[in-house]
Design goal:
Layout lengths: L1 H5 L3 H24 L2 H11 L3 H8 L1 H5 L7 H4 L6 H17 L10 H21 L1 H10 L6 H32 L3 H25 L14 H9 L2 H18 L4 H9 L4 H29 L1 H21 L7 H29 L6 H30 L4 E3 L2 E3 L1 H23 L7
Antiparallel strand pairs: 1-2
Helix pairs in contact: 2-10, 2-11, 3-14, 4-18, 7-8, 7-11, 9-18, 10-11, 10-15, 10-17, 12-18, 13-18, 13-19, 15-16, 15-17, 16-17, 16-19
């Protein structure tokens, strides 16, 4: 890859890095407006239960399983931008089209399952090319500036997505107050479509750097056997499993908890998100510089520990407590600190623990396998929410609902993951 990089002009590389910021900003806006509290509100307006919301919000994790197969094609071609464009265009267009489903002449259950399948097909298309997107980015960001670049990129991404999300949150509240929430979501998905165009155009304008590829057809068995024989990669993969279980078992229910249990408005939720985002923007570049000095493993270890403490605060945020907003604000501050590092660290850490040769195989395997395990954790969480419903659980002499218990489980697993990195994953020199 270094030889190919040397044949690419400095101007092209700088242009790619700028387009990478624009692409990432558009992608994050699309994700924010089609997930989390926005998606929960949309599904609730269609008549979805909390459990059904959980199943649908966990779809991106399930869809990641397709990455088991994508290396068969991706490893055989040096130019992958056309495949990336096809995947992301199909993905974003389907997401934009979800707004049509409530207008279809069918029952509530049919509409919800139609939404489920549309989300699933959409994310299957995205994750089929996900490993290629990762390689595309790493091809035009040299190692010596990787931390600072991705830190800066995350800052701009959060700034853009926060402003747009705040505006759309206010718009949705206005439409909700007037009793016409569906019209508000039509406006929201029109914005999604606009950012879809920006996102796809950014990929189109990028100068592609050809990657190493194999002329020998890849065996399906190689996708599974090659990674697990690599001891260094296995240590990283175990960490990914713990991470995916800890992050997915309760992930769908943070937004559900705010809307269904705490009854917070979109405006309040968006303001809390803004607190998260402001802290995130402030910390992203600092974590990037920290990673350039200390490495991605150290960054991941620290930020996962902070996120574990954050989820403990969610566990203690019960309905009726006078200081609930204080707890939620503190949780969103810690969340901003943690995710500012996690998002860039996990992305870059995979390149420390995977070889240049057949990297898409390793990335595809780890993403697919850990994603499948994460989805099972999400299904378990949704099953528990469905089984317990509004029943209270006595713990530490206090009453908690099942969502809070899931927050506690997630917190403990995150702290365990942080300790695993500290004791079992020695720092690796970045490529």
């Amino acid at each position: 890859m270094s030889q190919n990089l040397s044949r690419t002009s400095v101007k092209d590389l700088e242009k790619n890095r700028l387009l990478g910021i624009i692409e990432g900003s558009a992608a994050r806006v699309i994700f924010n407006l089609t997930s989390g509290a926005f998606l929960v509100g949309f599904l609730k307006d269609m008549g979805a239960s909390d459990a059904m919301c959980g199943y649908i919000l966990a779809i991106p994790v399930l869809a990641a399983v397709i990455q088991f197969l994508s290396p068969i094609i991706l490893e055989s071609v040096p130019y992958r931008k056309k495949l990336i464009l096809a995947g992301v265009i199909f993905h974003r267009i389907l997401l934009s089209a979800i707004i049509v489903i409530p207008l279809l002449p069918m029952g509530i259950e049919a509409k919800l399952w139609c939404t489920y399948m549309t989300f699933l097909i959409s994310y299957l298309a995205f994750y089929f090319v996900n490993a290629a997107i990762s390689n595309l980015y790493i091809s035009f960001v040299p190692q010596n500036i990787r931390g600072s670049y991705f830190g800066k990129r995350e800052s701009y991404i959060l700034l853009t997505s926060t402003v747009v999300t705040l505006i759309l949150g206010k718009i949705l509240d206005r439409f909700n107050d007037s009793g016409n929430l569906l019209a508000g979501y039509m406006v929201t998905y029109a914005i999604v479509f606009i950012f879809t165009i920006v996102n796809n155009l950014s990929f189109f304008l990028m100068k592609e750097i050809p990657l190493d590829h194999s002329t020998v057809p890849m065996k399906v068995s190689e996708i599974f056997t090659r990674p697990i024989k690599d001891r260094l990669f296995v240590k990283y993969f175990v960490m990914l499993i713990i991470w995916n279980v800890s992050s997915q078992i309760a992930n769908a229910y943070f937004s559900v908890y705010l809307k269904s249990d705490l009854k917070l408005s979109y405006t309040v939720i968006t303001l809390l998100s803004m607190v998260h985002s402001l802290v995130y923007i402030f910390c992203a570049r600092k974590w990037g510089r920290f990673a350039d000095q200390k490495g991605w493993s150290a960054t991941t270890m620290l930020t996962m520990g902070v996120l574990g403490i954050c989820y403990l605060l969610w566990f203690f945020s019960s309905v009726g407590k006078a200081y609930i907003i204080v707890l939620l604000t503190a949780a969103h501050i810690l969340s901003g600190v943690a995710w500012a590092g996690i998002n860039i660290a996990l992305f870059n850490m995979q390149f420390d623990y995977t070889p240049d040769e057949k990297r898409t195989v390793y990335i595809g395997f780890s993403s697919a396998a850990s994603g499948a395990i994460g989805y099972m954790a999400a299904v378990l969480g949704s099953g528990l929410v469905g089984a317990f419903g509004s029943k209270k659980i006595v713990l530490l002499g206090s009453l908690f609902n099942i969502k809070q218990i899931l927050f506690l489980v997630s917190a403990l697993l995150l702290l365990a993951c942080s300790l695993y990195i500290k004791f079992f994953m020695k720092p690796v020199k970045s490529i």
